[in-house]
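C-alpha cells for chain A. Residues wanted.
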C-alpha cells in the first residue's frame, strides 16, 4: 500500500471535514502545494484556484514573505495574552493599520480567529452598546435571505441558507430575515435596492425600533451567490438605520482587503457602517485571524463604561502576535503590489469574460464586482426558471478540466433561484489564467447541460 493510499484511508477514518458527508469525500483531492493561483495535489495534478480556496487567499499561494514573518515572530514571541492589562506590538500595529485603511468613522479593532467568531462578536458589541445607552431591549438582529455569516449558533441564526440549519436547530431567538437586494430575482419592475432597503424598514417597524439592535449585511453576498446590490441599496439602508436608531454591521469577511477593488466594499457606495467584521483576506488565509472594527461612538461606550459594565467579551487567541505579524506582512504585499487596484481592473476583465457566456441557454444571469463573480443557471432564460442540481455537475466538469470553484445550490429562497457558480480567484491571478477560467466555466456548463 503506497503512502497516498495510506493517507487517503487515514483521512476517511479519522478526519471530519466541514460540510461533511462520506459521499462528497469519496474522491477527495489532497493538496500538497500551492503557487500563485495554482494548487497541486498529491497525484501531481495542477488546478486553478478559482475561489482563492475559500474566498481568502488574496495574495496567492506560496508567498515566502508571510512564512518569514511568521517564523521571525515565533522566534521572538510566539504567544502572549492580549487580555486587558497585556498587549503585544504586532496586535497594536495591525489594529492601527486596519483602522487607517478602513472607514473614516472607525476607531478600534477587536481581534478574533475567523469570520463566524467576528460576527458573533459584532452581535455582542451591538447589544453591549445599546445596554450602555440605556436601551437593554434592543437585542434583535436583522439579516437577509441568502446571507452567509458563519455557522456558530448565533452566526448560523443570522445566516439564511437553510442547508446550514436543518440539522442544528432550533435557531437562537431574536434573529430575523428580510428579502435581499437581488436584482435578477426581484419581482416586478421596481428598484431592488430601494425595495430591499424598505423591507428592512418594514421589519424594524414590525418588531419595534426599540427592540432592534442591528442589521448585518455583506456588501456583496458571497456564499449566497455573489449577489451585487443596486447602487441605491446601501445609501437608503444607512438612512433608514440612522432614522430608527439601528446599527449597521458590514460583514466584510469576504469583501475586505481588496477583493472588490477597494480596501473595503461599502466604499463603492459612499457608506460607512457602525461595525465591520473581517477575516479571510487579512492574512490571505496563511494563519487564522479575524476581527471587528468599531466606530468611534461604540468605542466611546466601551472606554467610558463604569467597571461594573465593562466589555466582558474575550478569546484566548485575540490579538495573537504571530497571526497579527502575518497580517501586517500580508497588507504590505497588497499595498506594495497594488493588488486592490489590480482587483478592480482584472475584475472587469473577468466579468467581461463571464458575460460572453450569456449565449449559453443555461446561463440566466452573470454578475460580479472586482474579483468576485457568479453565473446563475436556469432551465429557461425567458422565464428564468431555476436550474436545480446542474451546478454540482458543472463544478465536477470544471474539476476534470483543472478548475476549482464552488456553487450555491438554488432553491425556494425567497426569492426562488437557480444554482449559482461562484468565482473569486486570487487578486494576483494572471490575465491568461483569468481567461482560462472563463473558458473552462463555459465548456463545463455546455458539458453539464
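Reply:
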Amino acid at each position: 500500500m503506497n503512502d497516498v493510499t495510506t493517507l487517503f484511508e487515514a483521512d476517511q477514518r479519522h478526519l471530519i471535514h466541514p460540510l461533511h458527508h462520506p459521499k462528497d469525500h469519496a474522491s477527495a483531492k489532497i493538496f500538497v502545494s500551492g503557487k500563485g493561483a495554482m494548487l497541486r495535489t498529491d497525484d501531481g495534478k495542477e488546478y486553478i484556484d478559482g475561489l482563492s480556496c475559500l474566498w481568502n487567499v488574496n495574495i496567492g499561494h506560496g508567498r515566502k514573505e508571510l512564512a518569514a514573518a511568521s517564523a521571525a515572530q515565533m522566534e521572538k514571541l510566539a504567544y502572549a495574552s492580549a487580555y486587558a492589562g497585556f498587549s503585544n506590538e504586532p496586535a497594536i500595529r495591525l489594529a492601527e493599520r486596519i483602522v487607517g485603511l478602513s472607514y473614516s468613522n472607525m476607531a478600534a479593532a477587536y481581534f478574533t480567529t475567523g469570520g463566524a467568531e467576528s460576527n458573533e462578536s459584532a452581535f455582542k458589541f451591538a447589544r453591549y452598546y445599546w445596554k450602555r445607552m440605556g436601551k437593554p431591549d434592543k437585542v434583535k438582529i436583522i439579516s437577509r435571505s441568502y446571507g452567509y455569516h458563519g455557522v456558530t449558533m448565533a452566526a448560523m441564526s443570522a445566516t439564511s441558507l437553510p442547508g446550514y440549519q436543518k440539522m442544528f436547530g432550533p435557531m437562537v431567538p431574536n434573529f430575523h430575515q428580510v428579502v435581499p437586494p437581488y436584482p435578477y430575482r426581484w419581482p416586478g419592475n421596481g428598484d431592488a435596492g430601494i425595495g430591499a432597503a424598505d423591507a428592512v424598514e418594514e421589519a424594524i417597524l414590525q418588531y419595534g425600533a426599540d427592540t432592534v439592535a442591528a442589521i448585518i449585511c455583506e456588501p456583496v453576498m458571497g456564499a449566497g451567490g455573489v449577489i451585487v446590490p443596486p447602487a441605491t441599496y446601501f445609501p437608503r439602508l444607512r438612512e433608514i438605520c440612522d432614522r430608527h436608531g439601528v446599527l449597521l454591521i458590514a460583514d466584510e469577511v469576504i469583501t475586505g482587503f481588496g477583493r472588490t477593488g477597494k480596501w473595503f466594499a461599502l466604499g463603492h457606495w459612499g457608506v460607512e457602517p457602525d461595525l465591520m467584521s473581517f477575516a479571510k483576506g487579512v492574512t490571505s488565509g496563511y494563519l487564522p485571524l479575524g476581527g471587528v472594527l468599531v466606530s468611534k461612538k461604540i468605542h466611546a461606550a466601551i472606554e467610558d463604561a463604569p467597571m461594573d459594565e465593562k466589555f466582558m467579551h474575550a478569546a484566548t487567541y485575540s490579538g495573537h502576535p504571530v497571526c497579527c505579524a502575518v497580517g501586517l506582512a500580508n497588507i504590505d504585499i497588497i499595498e506594495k503590489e497594488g493588488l486592490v487596484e489590480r482587483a478592480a481592473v482584472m475584475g472587469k476583465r473577468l466579468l467581461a469574460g463571464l458575460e460572453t457566456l450569456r449565449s449559453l441557454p443555461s446561463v440566466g444571469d452573470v454578475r460580479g464586482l472586482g474579483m468576485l463573480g457568479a453565473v446563475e443557471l436556469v432551465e429557461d432564460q425567458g422565464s428564468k426558471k431555476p436550474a436545480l442540481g446542474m451546478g454540482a455537475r458543472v463544478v465536477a466538469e470544471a474539476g476534470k478540466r483543472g478548475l476549482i470553484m464552488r456553487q450555491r445550490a438554488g432553491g425556494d429562497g425567497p426569492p426562488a433561484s437557480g444554482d449559482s457558480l461562484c468565482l473569486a480567484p486570487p487578486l494576483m491571478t494572471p490575465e491568461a489564467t483569468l481567461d482560462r477560467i472563463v473558458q473552462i466555466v463555459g465548456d463545463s456548463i455546455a458539458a453539464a447541460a
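The two ends are 39 Å apart (CA to CA). The mean pLDDT is 97.
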